[in-house]
Design brief:
By secondary structure, the chain is an alpha/beta fold. Helix content is 30%, strand content 26%. The strands form four sheets. The protein has a five-stranded mixed sheet with strand order 4-1-3-2-5. Strands 6-10-9-7 form a four-stranded parallel sheet. Its EC number is 1.14.-.-.
Length: 250
């Protein structure tokens, strides 16, 4: 029976994030879940796998249970499947940021770009006056991206600020549409660009994974596969699991 995989995040004030680590680890261990969860002052970010019942119980606890006390009521969540357990172990780690930009003053809960649903993405990126920007790392872009998207050629998301300073200009790039795997990098990147004076910044809600989940292949402007940070390596349309050999050589 295939396992259920949940990718999730939310920017939310968690000043007690250090105290949440062990109860969260115990919750995951009790449900026999494996994967990686990051906790920081700014929120939560993770991908875990387990049985349907275990994943559903975990998500219910995050959203409605006493551990987070209702603070994760706007969780960005995507489900997929794995033929085998895609993680070796369970890791719950404390971080300065749940996605590392290197600027802790950026707060997506206060200011963020305009969300664009997967069903509206094709129309937006077809606009001739918009810059379509892939915010992922270079090796991820090499596996697949949207037609015509700009590759910032960064090795890690922490280099995005440097890329923006060198190559983006609020006076020239008046409309920017950005995307990433699940949406979290774009939330922070869009908040950063708005703070730098860019006036019209859009980002794909739920990221590439949501687009691949909802968009029929015949209507898709995505080319290639979407790299994921687990042993499945890559996913295609319908969030279909791709084998390592297929993902590398197609």
């Amino acid at each position: 029976m295939p396992l259920k995989v949940a990718a999730f995040y939310q920017f939310a004030a968690l000043p007690d994030f250090r105290a949440l680590r062990e109860p969260l680890r115990a919750l995951c261990a009790g449900l026999d879940l494996k994967g990686s969860v990051l906790l920081a002052h700014e929120g939560i970010n993770g991908t875990i796998a387990g049985s349907d019942e275990a994943i559903d119980g975990f998500v219910a606890e995050l959203r409605h249970g006493p551990l987070f006390g209702g603070r994760l009521d706007n969780l960005e969540l995507k489900f997929s499947e794995a033929a085998q357990m895609p993680f070796q172990r369970l890791k719950v780690r404390l971080k300065k940021e749940i996605v590392t930009l290197g600027d802790t003053t950026v707060d997506p809960t206060r200011q963020v770009g305009t969300y664009v649903d997967a069903g509206d993405w094709n129309e937006l990126i077809a606009s001739p006056d918009i810059m379509v920007l892939d915010t992922r790392n270079a090796f991820e872009v090499a596996m697949g991206s949207f037609e015509g998207a700009v590759d910032p050629r960064i090795a890690s998301f922490g280099q995005f600020k440097e890329f923006a300073a060198r190559h983006l200009d609020p006076a020239k790039h008046r409309r920017i549409a950005m995307f990433c795997t699940g949406g979290i990098r774009c939330e922070k990147a869009s908040a950063y660009l708005l703070a730098q004076g860019f006036s019209e910044v859009y980002h794909l809600k739920g990221g590439i994974l949501k687009y691949l989940e909802e968009t029929p292949p015949q209507d898709s402007r995505w080319r290639g596969d979407c790299f994921v940070f687990d042993e499945r390596v890559a996913l295609g349309h319908g969030l279909r699991e791709r084998g390592h050999e297929d993902a590398v050589h197609e």
